[in-house]
Specification:
Helix content: 10-25%
CATH class of the largest domain: Mainly Beta
CATH architecture of the largest domain: Ribbon
CATH superfamily of the largest domain: Umud Fragment, subunit A
Distance between the termini: 81 Å
Strand content: 25-35%
CATH topology of the largest domain: Umud Fragment, subunit A
Number of domains: 2
Length: 187
C-alpha cells in the first residue's frame, strides 16, 4: 500500500512542476509580446524612429545616426523635420514658413524677409542644386526646407523636392539615439 502511494506522489510531482513551468513560460512570452507591441505602437504613432541615410544634414546629423521624431504640429523656423517625399522619409531644416520671402544669392547667403539669416549650424555656404527663381514666396501651408550641408543637399531649392506640405510632415527630429557618443538632444 505504501509503495502505491509513493508512486502516485512521484508521478504527480513532476506533472505539477511541468504545469507551473508551462504557466511561467506562457506568462513570460505574453509579457514580451505585449512589451514589443507597446514599443512598436509608441515608435510608429508617438515617437517615430529613423536612421539618417544621407549626408545632407551634416554636421548636425551624420549618416548612420538613429534619431527620434516628435509628432508635433508646432513647426517653426530652425526646426529639423522628417517628412514624406516620393515614398521616402527625408530629414531637413525648416528655413521659411508660409508667406515668408526667401532669397539666396549665388554664394549661398540666405536672406529671409529682407534680413540676412544667421545659420551657425552650416559649415559652408553654397547655392547647391537650385532650379527655382529668387526671391521666392513660400506658399500657404508649406515649409521651405534645406539641408545643413548646402552643397550636396537636395531640398526646397530644387523643384524635385519643393516646399513641404503640412500633411507630409511626420514631426520634429529632436533626439539622437545612436551612435552612443552622439546621443542627446538635437539643436
Amino acid at each position: 500500500m505504501m509503495d502505491e502511494k509513493n508512486t502516485t506522489e512521484q508521478n504527480t510531482e513532476p506533472k505539477s512542476l511541468r504545469n507551473a513551468f508551462a504557466k511561467a513560460l506562457f506568462s513570460t512570452i505574453c509579457s514580451i509580446v505585449t512589451a514589443a507591441a507597446v514599443i512598436v505602437l509608441v515608435c510608429n504613432f508617438i515617437f517615430p524612429v529613423f536612421r539618417v541615410t544621407g549626408s545632407g544634414m551634416e554636421p548636425t546629423l551624420s549618416k548612420g545616426q538613429t534619431v527620434l521624431c516628435n509628432k508635433s504640429t508646432d513647426i517653426k523656423k530652425g526646426d529639423i523635420i522628417a517628412f514624406y517625399h516620393n515614398k521616402k522619409v527625408l530629414i531637413k531644416r525648416v528655413v521659411a514658413v508660409s508667406d515668408d520671402i526667401i532669397d539666396i544669392s549665388g554664394d549661398g547667403s540666405v536672406e529671409l524677409n529682407g534680413k540676412k539669416l544667421d545659420e551657425p549650424y552650416i559649415s559652408k555656404k553654397s547655392l547647391g542644386e537650385c532650379d527655382i527663381s529668387f526671391p521666392f514666396t513660400v506658399p500657404d501651408s508649406r515649409y521651405f526646407v534645406m539641408g545643413d550641408e548646402r552643397e550636396i543637399s537636395v531640398d526646397s531649392r530644387s523643384t524635385a523636392v519643393g516646399c513641404v506640405a503640412e500633411e507630409n510632415i511626420i514631426g520634429k527630429v529632436y533626439f539622437a539615439v545612436t551612435p552612443f557618443g552622439s546621443m542627446g538632444k538635437i539643436k
